[in-house]
Write a structure and sequence with these properties.
Strand content: 15-25%
Distance between the termini: 45 Å
Largest sheet: 10 strands, mixed
Structural class: alpha+beta
Number of helices: 14
Bound molecules: S-adenosylmethionine
Number of strands: 21
Radius of gyration: 23 Å
């Protein structure tokens, strides 16, 4: 049986996958010809719920959508109510549960984190007192990552912009390390046709070599007994199984099995004593993915690290009223960082000191206030934080059109708000600040996040696309 060849797949790729899949190859081709699935992961911290949608079976917060709505026209998306994420990637939830079992206040590294799908997921899954370091080497992408984590609103993440080699300064710091490696992207062929055009055998080889370099550079930062979760969105043996074999040959590791339900259709692959998990689009409800988890079984329990400079702690008098803007001020360290008052989860102070002392921090945690002379203004991150104290500011819920106007940074004057700082929300989800002065109000939605879509288009094409409960 032959199926039409979709997307003009490269011959070398087709030959390889056809060899691997044998009689299943036409089903694979047919799946690539079908529309990509659309899925979202809800932000439980913000209490968003949906009705009547099919759940992604390996994630408590993941749901499939029947069609792709215009997400940019939904204020809930801008407010971090959910993250648009491909379903297979949410399998991280199962791997992370194994990796973090029994660890108190885990310190977690997401080494290649932008744009933040897996980081926002880890932030949601991280046990109380844990710290997530979300790192991205490319500067512009690190800022997108920071934006997405700010909107997600969890108080337990710091964004750094470092090369994997820099993590050699932090030996044995991380209990869990995710390496979601840059790869040849075959698993995205259906979703991103550009990935097909960019594919070549030479690039697969280049990716495999780069992945080994990244793993070699970052390995020392994993604690003995800690768990590496390695993932790619490609089917290539050279970028998946071969890298696990390479790790096995170099380092002392043992398998961390990830429980799968046979009904999900995930392929389990034995790589010596290790197990890899492969998602094929004709067998699972998701795109192509590979994931494995391995425990580091050797290394010094208390490795030598450079002295950390200490956290840039804010003084009580600098904090003023800002501490009371968060629900549980005592659950945080309060920092003064570039004239901002910042809250990071109080667990694991040593880890936080090391991160601030040895890495380039671009997003320090929940930015709660900005010091302007002797006063503090509320920061955009505070409005979006799940720790914002209810009632700390007068608030008004906006209708859809006004909310979209606000996101476009138009002048919106919420009639119920008194003079001064006020919080605007949509469907109960806080979005950002306005400062009312009589009949005027200044719009404090950040310029860089401004919705550029035409208002009429947004209203026509976006309204009511998602069945929120
Ligand atoms: N984990 C992300 C998520 O879930 O949204 C996706 C990560 S993407 C597969 C891989 C990331 O690795 C990209 O953001 C890319 O910029 C970064 N990257 C590229 N080259 C790298 C390198 N040499 N070392 C570390 N990261 C690199």
């Amino acid at each position: 049986m032959t199926a039409p060849r979709p997307l003009n797949l490269p011959d070398a790729f087709s030959a390889r996958v056809s060899h691997t899949l044998g009689p299943d190859f036409p089903a694979f081709l047919a799946a690539l010809d079908a529309p990509a699935l659309v899925s979202i992961r809800l932000n439980a911290g913000k209490g968003v719920a949906v009705t009547g949608l099919e759940r992604v079976p390996w994630s408590a917060a993941g749901y499939y959508l029947p069609a792709r709505p215009l997400f940019a026209a939904d204020p809930r998306w801008h407010a971090g109510g959910y993250y648009v994420q491909e379903a297979s990637s949410m399998f991280l939830e199962k791997a992370f549960a194994q990796a973090v079992a029994g660890v108190d206040e885990p310190v977690v590294l997401d080494l290649a984190a932008a744009p933040g799908g897996k980081s926002t997921h880890l932030a949601a899954l991280l046990p109380e007192g844990g710290l997530l370091v979300a790192n991205e080497v490319i500067r512009a992408r690190a800022h997108i990552l920071a934006e997405n984590l700010t909107k997600w609103g969890a108080g337990n993440a710091v964004v750094t912009q470092n090369d994997p080699t820099d993590f050699g300064r932090l030996p044995g710091l991380f209990d869990v390390m995710l390496v979601d490696a840059p790869c040849s992207g075959e698993g995205l062929f259906r979703k991103e046709p550009d990935a097909v055009r960019e594919w070549s055998e030479a690039n697969v080889q280049l990716c495999a070599e780069r992945q080994q370099r990244i793993l070699a550079d970052a390995w020392a930062a994993l604690k003995p007994g800690g768990v590496l979760i390695y993932s790619t969105c490609t089917y290539e043996e050279a970028e998946n199984e071969a890298n696990l074999r390479w790790l096995l040959a170099r380092e002392d590791v043992e398998n961390v099995p990830i429980p799968v339900d046979p009904a999900w259709g995930v392929e389990e692959i034995a790589v010596g004593p290790l197990t890899g998990y492969r998602f094929w689009p004709h067998r699972v409800r998701g795109e192509g993915l590979f994931m494995a988890a391995v425990r580091k079984t050797s290394g010094s329990a208390s490795p030598r690290r450079g002295r950390a400079k200490g956290l840039p702690l804010a003084m009580r008098k600098e904090l003023g009223p800002v501490a009371d803007w968060l629900r549980e001020p005592a659950a945080f360290h309060w920092l003064k960082w570039n004239e901002k008052l910042v809250a990071i989860s109080a667990g694991n102070r040593e880890a936080a000191e090391l991160v601030f002392g040895h890495l380039k921090v671009v997003y320090p945690g929940t930015e709660a206030g900005e010091l302007v002379r002797t006063q503090a203004n509320p920061s955009p991150g505070l409005a979006l934080s799940t720790y914002l104290a209810p009632g700390a500011f007068p608030a008004q819920d906006l209708d859809l059109e006004t909310a979209l106007r606000y996101l476009r940074r138009e002048d919106v004057v919420p009639g119920e708000l008194p003079n001064g700082w006020g919080l605007v929300s949509f469907a109960g989800l806080p979005m950002g600040w306005v400062k009312r002065i009589g009949n005027r109000a200044n719009n404090y939605w950040p310029k860089e996040w401004r919705l550029r879509m035409d208002l009429a288009d947004a209203l026509r094409d976006g309204n009511g696309a998602l069945p929120f409960g």
